[in-house]
Amino acid sequence: MSELTYDPDIPVTRPTPATEPHRKRKRPHPNGILLVILGAVFMALLDATVVNVATPTMRTDLHATGSALQLIVAGYTISYAALLITGARLGARHGFRTVFLLGLATFTLASFGCGLAPGAGVLIGARVVQGVGAGLMVPQIYSLIQLTFEGRARARALSLYATVVALAVVVGQVVGGLLVSADLFGTGWRPVFLINVPVGAALLVAAVRLLPRRTAPSSKGLDLPGVLTLTTALLLLVVPLVLGHEQHRPRWATGCLIAAVPAFALFVLVERAVARRGGAPLVPGRVLRSRDLVCGAAALFFSMAGYAGFLFSFSQHLQSGLGESAIRAGLTFAPLALGVATGSLTWQRVPARRQLHMIAAACVLAAAGYLGIGLTLRAGGQGGLLLLVLQLLWGLGLGYTTSPLLTLALSGIAPADAADASGVLTTVPQIAQVVGVAAYGSVFLSLADGPPAAGAQAASASVPGSVSAAASASAEALHATALPVAVGALLGALALVPLLRGRTGKGLAAVNRAGDN
Prior knowledge:
- It is a multi-pass membrane protein.
- The protein is mostly helical.
- It has helices at residues 30-62, 66-94, 96-116, 120-137, 139-148, 151-182, 191-194, 196-210, 224-243, 251-276, 285-288, 291-321, 326-332, 334-346, 355-376, 384-409, 418-448, 454-461, 469-494, 497-502, 509-514.
- The longest helix is centred in the first third of the chain and has 33 residues, at 30-62.
- The chain is globular and about 65 Å long.
- The chain starts with 29 loop residues before the first helix and ends with a helix.
């Protein structure tokens, strides 16, 4: 396994005369930097899912309405997703370390506010501020990885990042269940947020000591017209997807989704106008002209949308359909977590000329996992050993997809564009997860709330001990959801076809070497 390297000669991190007296000080080891930034992203992504387990307790304790609970859960996701690309530009303009620390401090303080919130209104506001903190912090991670690591060390760092992203969603359910069930000192749901305070404080102290101080701010402007139009377009897309289902797809949600199309078109026109005037567009055209980034981001979108949507549906089936506790449902996904970790950390061992084919094959493997799980659980049972094997295959498919895709998407990006590319790459998976839960989750919930199909009733009748009608309907809904999710995974493989044609025999070897130049 290659050793991580730290290259102080990258132009944006070159020491200045003002910092010359500190050169004798021992430089932080890249592993320490990686540990800090991955710990921060794990905490931020964990918070997006851990709160779901606590909503029943919150409803009782705060006397919250259904709409308030929706905003408690969704307020974080909405502000987080809307700020990612802007957060990346702020990092380039004011320094990645500075903006990362600001985001981490904001997230930690907002977590404290969430834990002490006396009512639903205060909690909603604190959750929105939490999302702002995460939106400032997370985009800097790609840039810090790009500027700290090179070649295979960079690919390994991105693999660890992808592992953390995938595992945080699974671990969030287990951690949330444990904290709520423990009811520490009679605090109920509050430790779900308060646990972030000591963790965030420790990461802040470590980040101040370890993150490189010498990142020179970029001369790029903030591009306020681009920020306003993109934020508006993202909100028009994300808000109805997050809130629409619980409100039975009201007209305002449909109107927002329709309006999002011209809003994104307006953003493109604004960016072109900024570029013609000699300004610095929020998303430069040369970034989007990178075929590796476009194809890689498209495949990543389908992969993460399917993962999030099916994981949501599967969790709902386990808890609402089969009546399992949140902790047990979370532990059910242990083989999935193992598969993701294994794939993410071993894909570089595949011969370079086969790595693009490996990603496409992994998409097919994930599709097979989705279909297999749907068929296995269709009868309403627990699945047994076969379910564990299918989850492992699903996890391997995801691990051999997401990690190399991150490396692929960044392969043609120059260090000067690292911040802008990181904003795109952090936004794509986040939007994908929102779309996946909204689209695939809606398929599952609409079918699970209805009567079980005749096939499911017949299948459940043949199972010893029988299963309830609700379990049968839920199992049939999961089976029906698996098909479109599998199709989406296969579309991810198709997104790579242009690269398979244009890079035959090169694999990702060029990616690993690119970082060394």
